[in-house]
Structures are given as C-alpha cells and as structure tokens.
Batch of 4 targets.
Target 1
Amino acid sequence: MYRSQRLGLKYLTASTVMFGAMIVFGLLSSIYYIQPGFLLNIFNFSSAKIIHIDGLVIWLLMGFIGSVYWFVPQELEREVDGIGLAELLFWVFCAAVAVVVLVLIFVQYGAANQWSMWFINQGRKYVEAPRWAAVGIVVVAGVFAYNVIATTVKAGRTTGILTVLIADLIPLLVLYFDAFPQLTSMSQDLFWWWWLVHLWVEATWEVLIGCIMAWTLIHMVGASRRVVESWLYVQVALVLGTGILGLGHHYFWIGTPRYWFAIGGVFSAFEPLPLLGMVVHAVYDAGSRHLQAANRPAFFWTLAEAFGNFLGAGVFGFMMTLPQINMYSHGTQWTASHGHFAFWGAYGCGVIAVLYLALEKSRGCNGLDGRAWKWSFALLNLGILGMAGALLVAGIDQAFFERAVGGSTWNAYLAMQGRPWFIESMWARFVFGLVFAAGYALLVYDLLAIGKSQRAAVPQVTAAAGS
Amino acid sequence: MTPRTMVVTALLLGAFVAAAGAYGLLYCLSRLRDRRGLRIGSYLSYTALSVIAAMVIALTPLHAGWKVLIAASCIAYLMIPPVTWRYLTRLHRGEKKSHDPRFAKHADRHFADLFRRA
C-alpha cells in the first residue's frame, strides 16, 4: 500500500468520526424543537446547529480528500508528490477541527469585533469556523491540490478522470476565498456567499464526487475506463450546465434583480434531468451485473448514491424551487428536508461506498459481505427517509400557516411552533434521527469488523493446504 | 396564489419529477428483464407524468413561462431514458474485457443478448 493510501485511510477514518459528531449535534439540535427550553443559556440551539452543519461540510470534505488520496497513487502507479507535507497537514487539520469544535462548544460567541471573527466565529452560515481555521482550510486545500497536480506532472501522464479532477480542484480552492470578504451590505454579502455555498455543493463537489464514483466503479466492478470516462464527461457537462446558473434559485429574496427569478427557476428545473440520467446508468450497471459484486456494501452504497441524489436533490428540490413556491417555502423546514436528503444522497452514500472499497483492499480481502452492513444500510436510509419526510410535513405546514396564511409575521412564527402537525413532525424527526444514529453505530461496528475474519481465514486455509 | 394552491402546486411538481424517476427506473428494468409487466409499468408511469404535467398546466396559478417549461420537461423526460440507454449500450459495445473475469463474462453475455434483441 502507498503512503498516500494510508493517509487516505486516515482521512476516511477522521471523516467517519466527524460523521458521528455531526449526528450527535444533529440529534441535539432536534431536541430544541420539542423541548424549547433545553440547555437554555448553557448550550443554545444556534451553537448546536453550527456544529451540526459545519460537521456535515467537514466530514464530507475529509471523505473526498481521503478518497482522492486513496485512488490517485493507483491511478498513476506512483507515490503522491509531497506526501510528507500532506501527512503533516492531516494532523494539523484534525487538531484545528478539534480546537474549533471546542471553541464553539465552550466559548460559543463573542462581541461583534475582529477578535471574535478571527478566534471564535466568522458568523457566516456553513463557514462559521473562525478566520484562522478558514486560513487553515485554504492551506490544506492548497496542499491537496498541489499533491494531485504535482504527482500528475511528475508522472508525465494523465487520465480522463484525473484531468477532470484537476480542472475541478482549482475552482474548489478559488471559491473558498469567498469565505473571507467582510461586506456590510447583507445583499452583497449573500450574493457572494452563495458562490461559495452553491457553487461548491452543486458544481465543484458534484464533479469531485463524479470523479470519485468513476474510480469506485473501475475498482469495484472492473468497469471499463473508456465507458466510465465517457460517461463522466457527459455528466460533468450536464451537471455544470444546469448547476452553475442554478445558483439563481438562491438569489430570489436577497435583493438581487428580478431576472434571477427566471434564471434560477429555469436552470433549477433542468437540474433533475442529469440526475435521471444517473439513475438510468445505475440501473444499467446494476442490472448488467445481476446486482452481484464482490464488495457488496460498496456496490449497494453506490446504487444508493444515484437514487438518493435523484430523490433528495431532484424530487425534493424541484418541489420548492420555482419562485412562486419558493417565496413561501424558503428557509422553512421544507428547505431542511431537501438539504438533509440531497446531501445524504449526493455525497454521504458515495463516501461510505469508498470507505468499504478502501477497507477491502487495505484488509487484503477479495470482496466484502456480511449482515451488519445490511442493517446499517437499512437503518441509515430509513432514518434519512423518515427525517426528510417529517421535515417535509413540518415545512409544508410552516409554509402554509406561517408564511401564506399568517403573512410571515413574528406572531405567525410563534403560533406555528405550537401547531400539532409541526410538533408531531419534530418528534418524528427526532425518532428517525435516533434510527439514523443506530444505523451509524452499526456502520462503525461493521467498518471495524468487516473483512477481518476473512483475512484471518486465509493463512489457516493456506496452512491446511500445505500440510 | 392561495395557501392551498401553493401546497397543491408544490406537491404536483414533486410528483412530476418522482413520476419521471419511476418511468426511468421501470424503462431500464423493462429493457434489462424484457418483461411485459415492467414495460407496461413504464408506460403507465409516463402517462402519470403527462397527467401531472397537464394538471400543473391547467390547475395551478404558475406563470405561463413555467408552464411552458413543465411541458418541455415532460418531453425531455420521455427522451432521457431511451437516449441514455442507447448511449450506454453503444459505449459498452466497445468495452474490453473487465478486470474481473466473472463479471466480464456476465456482462458480455448480457449485452450480447441486448444487441441481438435490438
């Protein structure tokens, strides 16, 4: 195994830990909706939510970085250039994440001054990490991009997937600089902030996961590189074609000109089209292999990625994206429902697929299977479906009574919190959150155990054959 | 737009994309398995998709531009599964033997059957 692959495993492990932290703080966030006085003035909802959503970004980012460090040396058949620096930065990254989480738990917030921004909280959703940590993320992303590009240059050759990845890493890094401006106009601030949030999630991350899934298909089921790369080009063109200007659906109510209604609505309506193509591809591949693969967990998580992406981003997204609907649904639990399902489908499932693939190789197994992964697969997907469903009901109730009937007033907001459908949905979300957490616990157990008995059995069989 | 029509419109839009997904899924399964029931299921899903599109156009207070977009999407959804399928089949036609001989054998036989049927 290459050093880079060992580093990839470390990143994937750290990603799994952050996944757990995200679930813990997500569960905590859900309690405030059913017990509004919970931990009042000790650990408020806003702090729990910050760690929940920032944890989401970090676990996926670590999962992507780990996946790339895992695949790149296999792709180029050489060690990654600058691996020592990358290893050092992994520990720096983990330490920085730990410090930020501790600060967000114990300090939480500060006065509205430069000190707070640099050392406590930047105050911008999804990029709340204090500025020193944001600088650290730029350094990690920069070294990561250098590792991939320099290795490719030194290898003197490239592949289609690697070329797409390199082309993607540059905007991935550059867009993160949008986390830094200090604009006093809320409209201007949100205008640029969406460049970071939307263009990361619905453009550069889509391409990144596309590359990772392409490698996964090659290594998992021996898919032809020519086929995978051709499909990757088509998907990247479609996803970027619809996703970049799909940015407009975030510009509806922030003070931007009216033409964003048309741009955002039209391109958002196009966004489910490539997702349907992905479903067709997934069914084609799964059917042609009769749902059989040596690494069954990785195979099924890959399938879940295609379907989850379509349902979460496509169906749940299109329901609320046209401006006339979005005027009422924007910022309600409806958005949270779409966000939970789409992130899980588009990215979470993909990272878990790579985890199983990397474990198979690192533990020297020839395929993986068992019972625990099936239970964790079922519980995690049932949990997310239940949470997304409960949030959808709460969101529709909110859009109907608080926004459309109540006129979005403060009174309507408060009255909404006491409505039975809203409260019951919040309970349902909490219960399904527990189901999801149980699925995570089983996933961790399975990741620790799977394949170890198979590896132990190999020398015994060999010894028996020798005697 | 009244609160009720807002919710109905949103649910119809969600059902519209969900029906497109059901159509795509059943279309692929019918091509893979060559079963009449699946083929009929895919036709029914597309019929449901068209009916939902017609309901969005006729019953909801969306602006005319969005209704045109829904009608155009309805046609696009009809094309996507067969066009993607044909593209994937053509791509796999030139596929060399995969790394794992077990799967390669299955895949080759399966695709050979598909081409023969086509």
Target 2
Amino acid sequence: MKTLVYVEHEGGQIKDATLAAVTAASKLGEVHALVAGSNVGPVADAATKIAGVGKVHVADAAHLDHGLAENVAPLAAKLMETHDAFVAPTCACGQRDRPSNERWR
Amino acid sequence: MLETNHAHAPSCHGSRDPRCQEGEPLGVAKIIAKIAGEEQPQLIILGKQAIDDDNNATGQMLAALLGWPQGTFASKLDPSGGEVSVTREVDGGLETDKLKLPAVITTDLRLNEPRYASLPNIMKAKSKPLATKTPDELGVDIKRRLETLKVTEPPKRQAGDKVGSVDELVGKLKALGVVA
C-alpha cells in the first residue's frame, strides 16, 4: 500500500503533527509526502529527512501558499491516482483538506 | 433544513440501533449537494463535526462535491455583495478568508449565541411544509464505506492516595521511582 501524507508546515518549519502522521502512515506501507506552498524548497528538504518517507512530492506555487483546500485538494486528488490512502495531520489545515479530497466520489 | 435520522438517535456510542448505521459524512454530503442543486442556495451552513462520530468531514465533502469555496470552523461571518468574509479558528489564532458565493460554511462554537425558539414560533414552525424524501427518491447512493470495528470507553481513572506530609509524599514518589 502506498500512502500520501500531507506535510503541514508554517514559516519554513514542518509541524510536529506531520511526524505523527508519517509514523501512522508507515504502518500501512510505503509513505510518500506532499509538500505544497510557495518557496517550499527547505521544507521539502526537511521532509526527505523524516524517517519513513520514501519520496517527497513538491508543489511550489504562489496559490498554494495558504494551504487552502480549494487549491490543495485538486492537487492531492490528482496524486491519489497513484496512491492508495491519504493521511493528514489533525491541524486546522488538514481538517479542511483531507475531507475535500475528491477520490471518494 | 435537512433532517437526518442521526438527529433522532439518543446516542450512538456503541449502539446497534439501525439509525446509528446511517448518515455517513459522504452520504449526507451527497444528499445536501443534490438538494442544493435543486434549490440553488447561496450559502449552506453546517455544524463543523457530528457529536457522535467526530468525523468533521461533511461540510468539506459537500464543498468539494459542489465545487464551492468552503469556510470551515467559522467564528464570524460578514457577507457583502456576492462575497462573504469568514473568520476561522485555526491552530495559531484566527484566519480570515474571503469566499465568493455560493459557499459552504461550517460553524465553530463561538459563531453566535443559540437562539431559543419561543412557543409561538414553535407553533408557527409546525405549520411549515416538511419535504420528506428518501435517498432513493433523490437518486443518491449512500452506501456505507466505513465499518465501525470497536467502540470502547476511555480507561477509568484510578483513585489517588492522600498523603499527610511532604515527607510522606516524597517517600511515595521515591517508591514509585518518579524521583531519585
């Protein structure tokens, strides 16, 4: 099973809840991470260093900056064509992205 | 107003009541989306999460199904023209988003004071037409996709010990290995 984990980050720092999400996802199998935002190079680098993450998908664009569901969900939905499960930390941001994912339609 | 069976169930924790087996977020979102398509509202307001399953997903799913913007955990709404400003409770404070209508809003506790219905209004409400439809009539598939495997109560808290003096407290802590 291949799982996509949404990386929650702010001010160039990955939030701790993301680490818990990766640990949980790693129990399902292979873990890929999704880093979305603008100028997220350093965050993506940090994501590659999280134990258990096999691959990091980076989406660097201005409209992804605030992690709005309207912008992030279609991106995640597209990536879900090649993943089996989506895991997001329970933060204010994951709470709106995750259920907006379109694959369950 | 949309009424689901869930609202009538006394409590669904661990219940095998058939009413508790209905109303999965996706199914509810599909039903509301269908009705929204028929009635064309500009704003749909939902609670942020159901008390029984804490899924916190119906509003978000509804927004995605309709392709409408979403303002979740709203603590303040300010509509003007074809837009609504939504103040949202997020991890580090408040975030204000501007949404183009039509939009989906889910509410936080601080949005407003509940308005208690007066007796005359309750009587008036009783005469309002109630359009009752089944999911089949709406042509919506609400097949369950989640299965509840287990529901357990949180572990009970153990009773504590009372100590008579600081020395006794330190002694007990040492015995437990909490302090050296």
Target 3
Amino acid sequence: METVDPLAQAFTESVPKAPVSMCFSYDLYRPQLFEAILPVVDAIEICPDTISYSKGGKIFLEERILEQLQSVNKDKKIFIHGVGLSIGSYDEMSSNYLYLLDELFEKLKITWQSEHLAYCQVDGQNLNTMLAVPRTEEMLDLLTTRVLDLKKRYDVPFLLENIANILPAQRYEYSLPVFLNKLHQSSGCGFILDIYNLECDEHNYDISLEDHIATLDLQAVKEIHIAGGTTEQNMKLDIHSRKVSDRTLQLTEQVLTKNSGVEVLTFELLPEAYSLYEPGEISEHIDEIKRRLSLV
Amino acid sequence: MNLREEQQRMLGLLKNGSPGQVADPLLMEKLEFQRTIIVWWRCFQFEHWLILSSKLLKDQHLLEPLVMKLYQQHNISSYPAEAGEQFVEYILQQPISPLIKSVAMLELALIKLKDPGHLTEHRIRWNTSPFPFLDALLKGREYSLEDENNVAYEMVVSNQISGKIMVNALV
C-alpha cells in the first residue's frame, strides 16, 4: 500500500494554485446569451458536432458562431469538446469529425481539445449514443496510438472525459481511474473530470465517487465539467439541462481543494436547454458558481 | 470475443436486441432503457426541426414508434438537419395520412429555403386546402386528417416566388 509522507502532503496542499478559469459550453447561435455570458467567463467551450450542419453530403461549420468566436478569441480561450470522434471504435475514428477539427484549428486559436472516453459508431453505423470502452490492454494500446496521433496532428493538449454509463460494465481488466492513469502515462493525455457524470455512475451503479477521485491522478486533470440533469426510471441521466446542484458544487469544491492540475471549470448546458432560462439567469448562475467555489 | 466482435455485438443489441439474445437480465433491461433514451432524444430533436409534422405524429401516437423503427432500420445521421431529412424521407414511405406527409414535405422545403442559394422548386400535393389546415395546426385548433372530397391542391415552395409559397387548386 502506498504511504503518504504527511509533511510532503502538507507542503503540496499549501502550494498556491493557479487560478481556475470559468468556462461555458456555447453551441447554438444565441447572440443575447453570448453577450450575457461573456462578462462572467474566461473561456468558451464548443462542440464541433453541434455547431456544424450537413448539406449535400458535406459537413459545414455554422458561420455565425464561428464569427462570434473569432470576435472574442483574443480575450477568451476556446476549447473544443467533441462527442463524435468515437476514439474507442475498433475500426477507425470519425473522418467527418476530424475534418471539422481541421477546419476549427484553421479558423480559431484553440487552447486544447477533448473527447469522451467512448465509442459512438461501429462499422460506420451511428449508435446515437456513447458507449464505454472496455478497459483492457488492447484498448489501452489503441487509445494510446490515437491520442499520440491527435496531439501530433493539432499540437495542443488532448483530454479525455469519463462518461456516464447507462449500460452495466461488460468486461475490464482495470478500474476506470487506474485505466485512465495508465493512459495518461502511455499517451500524455490529460483528463476532464466530469463530476456530474460520476454522480450518475454513483447513483446508477453504486461506484464509489470518493475512490475514483482518490485513485485518479489529479495532476492530469486539467478541466472539470459540472452540469445538472434529470432522473428517469430511477436512472440519473447526463442530460445537461439543469442548473448545477449543491452536491455537485460541494464535490467540485472538494476536488479543487486538492493538489490537482485543474485549470478550467466548465458549466455545461445543452443548447436545447438554453430556452429554459433567460440569458441573464444563466450568467447569474455562472456567477453564483464562481462565488461558491471562490473563483472570483 | 475480440474488440471488433464486442462492438458489433453491442451495435446489434442496441438496434435490434431481443430478450432471447442476452443472458444477463440487467444488461437486457438497461439496453431497453438505453434505446428508450436514444429514441426520446431523437424525438426531441425532430420536434425541434419538424415542429408541425412531429405534432401531427404525436397526436396520432406515431412519433415514438416511427422514430424507433427509423433507428432500428437506418443509420441515423448525427447531424440534426440531416437526420430530420432522413426522417421526412422515412415518413413519406409509411402507410400514414397523406396530409402528414404533405406537412412533412412543406417543413423540409422551408428548412431548405433558409439557404438563399437553394433554388429548387418544391411541389407538394395536398388533399385538403393547406392554409386553413395549417392555420388550425399552428393555432392549436381542432383539425381533421380526412381528405376533402374530390379536391386537390398543389403547393409550390420556392425562393424564386415572392412570399415563398403559392397554392393552386388542381382541377
């Protein structure tokens, strides 16, 4: 069992941490919302799949959103957070998604990019959902190669996020945090720690959230995702449609007080949920999050 | 089972899994739930893209069953606009009221017309006078899917027409 030197621990915990930037997921052209969030965020996260559309078999980025992002790119960091790369597919990653990445990196200054640790297509068939990858040596090798390729291709850090599982785990050689740590060691990828997704897994499959956080190499965690969602048939779903709950904020606070590599905290709200709130209400909620977590 | 076999199995189970295929009852139950979420999510997106067609299908209790069948039989695009177009094409092949099909074609045509460069002329046949029907639908009033007797209309939808829409009674 690993022993911890209390003096070393006290030292690392007393080292002043770099300020954590506040970020919001902006994926639908809503000028009023964009204006409302700009004063309260340091960064903007975009989902290439969501800000693009298909026409005549070709994929295009939504020009109006691109223009908005370009207009603030000097003052605000921009992060890419995808859902369609399908990094865990046995055959190949999505070529459509890679095309979108090429376009975005050409048009914007991107600080880093991230994806979900999952696969969403098989043999070119869209699953219409994300499934967890088996945590095996075979998958570790496949992911390592792909992460290294992505880092080389775009020359920015690449992060992977834990998904919320609706299906029970099928087979694995490692627990999720151990698997992630191994992947970090082999590929140099960082992590997004999605606190709300962990809460979903805790609720649905009784995984120990505390064990996950205690085992995960928190120095590799560069970003935290928080959101609010719903429960259906006693399953907690990662539908980011609500404000962040008190418990999610408490858990986030616990992680932020540890010695971690966290630089960014992102409040995720699905574009389909934007209309549930007035733009001012969303910016007020972001402000409240910042106050609660002493980010201001 | 290697990685390819495992992922192909999951694809098959998600799309067409039946109770006999999986020994694990928990996995079977959650697969069913996962499918429900996928279909619910797709319905939600279609309701956003095809407001009137979705309302009509919902009123007829057809929206979810049709989206489920679409999911099982086709590779639904991850891009909402493209998926919406796939859904309209699917609706047109189904044995449902021709009026629902006319509304779906109209909505698809209007989406395409948002692109000023879209110069195709869309001709849609209606078995009832379209404007009173659409008016009732938009205002949440009672409507009928019955055909008007011996009456047909052709609606032309195009960026090249002033007002975008023109309706002619067919003799």
Target 4
Amino acid sequence: MPLIKEKTKMKEQDPKKRIKNFHEVALGYSLEDALKEASRCLQCKDSPCVRGCPVNIEIPAFIKLIKEGKFDDAIKKIKEKNNLPAICGRVCPQENQCEKFCVMGKKFEPVGIGRLERFAADWEIKKGIKNPKKAKSTGKKVAVVGSGPAGLTCAGDLVKLGHEVTIFESLHKPGGVLVYGIPEYRLPKKIVEIEIDYIKKLGAEIKTDFVIGKILSVEELLEEYDAVFIGTGAGLPRFLGIPGENLNGVYSANEFLTRVNLMKAYLFPEYDTPVKKGKRVAVIGAGNVAMDSARTALRLGAEKVYIVYRRSEKEMPARNEEIEHAKEEGVEFLLLANPTEIIGDENNWVKQMKCIKMKLGEPDESGRRRPIPIEGSEFPVDVDIVVIAIGQSPNPLVPEATKGLKIAKHGNIITDENGRTSLERVWAGGDIATGAATVIAAMGAGKKAAADIHKFLSE
Amino acid sequence: MHRIVYKKQLSENVKLFDVEAPLVAKKFKAGQFLIVKIDEKGERIPLTIVDTDKENGTIRIIFQEVGKSTKKLGLLNVGDMIQDVIGPLGKPAEIKKFGKVVCVGGGVGVAPLYPQAKALKKEGNEVISIIGARNKDLIILEEEMKSVSDRLYITTDDGSYVRKGFVSDVLREILEKEKIERVITIGPAIMMMVTARETKPYNVKTIASLNSIMVDGTGMCGACRVSVGGETKFACVDGPDFDAHLVDFELLMERQRIYLEEERKAMELFEEECKCR
C-alpha cells in the first residue's frame, strides 16, 4: 500500500453556515476516513507518541485495532488510560503532544491520533456505552473537589480501583471548564454529559451546588474522607487594569462564555440568562479562550469581531486550528496592538476602545519577544462589547478557606510531582496547582494524584 | 432539589419562603447570601437569607418580584421544589461589640439587615434600627426588627405609616445627637449612597451590603465587580459588605441596569405565557 503523506482531512461545517449556529464545527471521521488514517500509523516499537501523551494512552495499539476494524476493542484500549476520550479527541492540543512525536510527522504529516481517538469514542457513543463493571470496594473514601478535567480523571481512576469517591462541584452542572468555558460548537455539552455519566456509572457520586470552602471546609471533608483531591481550576478572571474596564459592555471571557455555554444565553429568552449581543466586539488576548470568545460573539450575531493582541501572530498562544477556524469565520486580527483605555457613552456603555501600536523587543522570561508600545501611535477602535481574555488565575476560594495549605505567589496550591500538598491527606492538581493550562494537562495531574492517593490508601 | 415548606406574602410583590436546605442552614452567617436557580432553564439569582432553622433544616428567604425569575419563584407554592440552592456565599459580616450601632434598611433590604441586627444585638451592642419604604404596605419585618433593636424608627416616603420622609432624615437626627460607633446600611443603591453621605461628616464607619448582578457567585465571572476605594472588587467573594464611604455607588447603579432591556423582554413574554395579569 502506498504511503499516504497527508493526514486524512476531517469534514467541517462550512464557515458561512456555521457562524449562524452553535452546532459542532468539526464533524469527525467517517468509517472510511478512520480506516485510511489508521493505516498510516507505522506501529513504531518504541512508540514515541505515547511519551507525548499526559495520560499515556497506548496509541499504536488502539490505532492497530481501528485498522483491523475492532472498534470496540480500540475504545476499550483507550479507556484503560483515559475515561474522557470523546472530550480529549476534540480539545487536546495533539500537535504539541502525541502527534508532535509521531515518526510520520518527521517527514510528512503526523498520524491524526486525536481524530482517531474521537472516532473510536464517538463510535461507542453512537452504539450506546455499556455499563462498566464496578470494582470491588476497598472501603476507603476520597473526596474530589471540582468536577473539571482534573477532578473527573482523578475520580475515574480511583473508583476503578475500588475506592469510594464523592465529587463536590460548586456549579449546578458538573464538568467545570468543559461546561462553562469551552463552547458548544467545539465540544457539544451532550458529549460532556455522556462522558461524565460514564464516570458516574463507574461508581463516582457527584454532588453539585457544593461550594467547598463555604458549605464545607477541607478540614471537615478530612473528617469523613480518607483523602481529598482539590481540582478547583483557574476560575479567577484577570483584567487589564485600564480606565473604563467596569463600563457596561465589558466582560471577562469567563463571564461571557459562562453566560453563553453554561447558562445557554444564546437561547435567551427560552433560557432565562441574557447576554449582550454586540454589533462590534473586541476580544483582548489571543489564547484559546480568546478564540472561543471571538467565535462565540460571531455566532451571537456580531457584524465585526476583532482579536486584539499585543504581540504578533507567531506568539499567539492559541492552537493553530483555533486561529485558522477564527480566520475562516471572519474574525479580524489587530496584532501588535494593546488597549489603553475603554471609552463609554453618556449612559456608561462602551462605545470605543483606544489602542496603542506595539513593536517586539528582546525575548522575555516566557521566551516570547516582549511587546513595547510605540509612543504616539494611539488609535481608536469603535466597539460596543469588549471581552477580556488575557488569562485566569487559580480560584482562591478553597486555598483561602483552608488553613495550612501552602500557596505560591500567584495563588496556586504548591504540590510535589505527585500532587501532594503541604497538608496531610490532601492532593491538588490541574490549573489550581499549575495556573491556567490545558484540559489534558489537568487530566494528567488528576491521574498522577489518583495513583499516589491509591498508593497512600493501600499502605 | 429543595422543597418549599412555608410561604407567606409580605406585600404585593414581596414574598417569604422557608426552604429545605439543612447544610446551608447549619453554615449560614449574617451577611452571607444565596444563589438560587429555579429550574433547568432558569438563571442564577442572588437572594437573601433572613433566618435559619437548624433543627428543621430550613432557611428563610425573602424576595421582591422584580423580573421574570423572581416572578416565577413567587408562583411556586408549599410542596414545590427549587432546583438549585447554592450557599452560603460571600464573606460573613463583621459582627462584634462596637457599642452603639445603627442599622438602616430600605424596602426589601430589611430582609438581609435583620440577621445582622440580630447578631449585633446578641453580641451586646445597643442596636438602633431605621427601616423605610415607599408606603406602609412595603414595610416588612417590623416585628422581627423590633425584637432585636433597642429602638426602632420607621419612615414611609408618602407618610402612610409612622413618619413621612426618608430613613436618612432619622439617621441625620441621631447622628447630630448621639455618638454612633457603626452604621450598617442595606437597601436600594441610592439609599445606601445617601446613608454614606450622611455618616461621612461624622466619620462613622459605615458598611453597605452590595446587591450587584451575579452569575456564579463564587468569584469566577466578575459580573458583580464594584469599585471600592478605586480598586475593583468582586461583590460575591470580596463582599457583599464593603466600606460605604469607599464604594462607587453610581457605578453600582449603572451596572445594575445592564440587562434592563432583556429583563423587560423576558417579563413581557412570561406574562403573555402565563397570563399572570
């Protein structure tokens, strides 16, 4: 069989159509696509791809099973390591992980590992997921605080080992950033629901509306549970600290996305939560959250959406795929520009934003070239909504309410490489420990902590 | 799911519920609040806890019907369920022995004021309370406030009950004559602003409980941001209590108006739907 140099394309919704709806953009592989793509895998003995995967999925093995048409076995293989494959197949930055190390990728395009993972997961969902067998109980109890990627992964691994796990979620729906942050068109909430349901079927109990740090303290949890895992994420939005930031029409990306995703404001007034639908929207920042906000604004009906970023395209932290999608959909990029002031009208509503042009200097501690304002280069941009997407800090609620828990300067909980905190029987992982990162990194941390908690409980 | 076990109409648009929420009842401290989501499609709205019954595991909430969500809530009856009750949220009020304190409440703001007055009284303070409303029908919790206050003053804008005028009129007279250690003010933003203006010349520490628009109530979204002493704070986690002399009340009022248009639309559709009126 001739070598196929390019990754098999995945069908997508047409950009012109998709900016008018919230349905998923990427449509997934057909059976033929999957078989073709699976055949590209070289089945390398030393599997460098696996080293790139934070949860160590046996990638060549599951791809081989797909190639052989054994889809049930393929998903089983994935689920040995990853309980959330339909989510990861969609939102993992594979280009920086498994696919980065793919030997095919050295000369040609890497194997579409993420797309194949998604195929296998969607195959199972379509068929109906069989109820997994529950493990025999060890009688040990673990409390997991937060039901985002870190918490769900930690809980999933622990219940599989027979520990009794209760997940405490502060919002009314479990999933954390998967439900409040990542938009429907990138990660359908039905998919999240199905995979969370799987964690429940494995035996984890989820208590929503439980704000740990308020209704129960970590101390109190330790009275009832043998171990506690904190995975409360990076929920604290950062602002720019420029004049006009509290004007009506200025949102944090967290608020904008939470209203639309979690509260379904795009279906207002059928759903009760409103969101301001701007005509001209500026999103500040160029990470994945910024792209999500910009593309959400388009779908809410904005005529013009800008990404305003102080560095150049090369430094943008978002995934290439997200940037490409945003471009296809007509998002305009104002690069090397930084807002200096947001100006309001007589009723306190945003009407304009003042920006200054930037140039790039020497690399800073992040390795990216430092942006420097060009004096006298201010220019106005007419906008009616501004979304600030310059990052989130660790959520301070639990750290503040937990005596003795060691916190670093930026508010993150200090842990060792296995997620152990300064408090006995308390682990932490995900964005609360590292600062804002990716879904899969949080899952990796949840997995590591679960292994260490298991070791501790087995002693 | 949380069952409503008691319902009482306090005035035309103000209702009182006792709701099952045993853990919240156990943990609630004066000054804290609640987020309620009535049903699947509902929005998350911050509400006031007035009192708790730890033994029966219930909390008492009082709310004014101002928009679709509170109207919908008001239509529920004893035995009905509220889908989500999240709390207690926010920092507890600073309760200690100050000496002579004045509690100033306006309209439905008397509801969150009551637990604070009660806690202050219990702590051994001399509690002077001033409650006001537009008219007699809108005065709530008169008996309760009386029971925890050394003196209780009442004002109505139209003079339909006790004294005609504003709570600030009474406050001014008290400040002129007596040495006050602290003032707590809860009510419409404009009333809290005026209270702060009255106490400023006397340099009496004044605490306002801010009722911003919120979504999650846990510091995640920043919808509730307020400016206090020139610094941006989140009412949900940094408050809701703040030094009233430092609060930018005009900003608070402007931000409370963000969704007026949407609220009106939702309300019209809702009234059409259920033909409430």
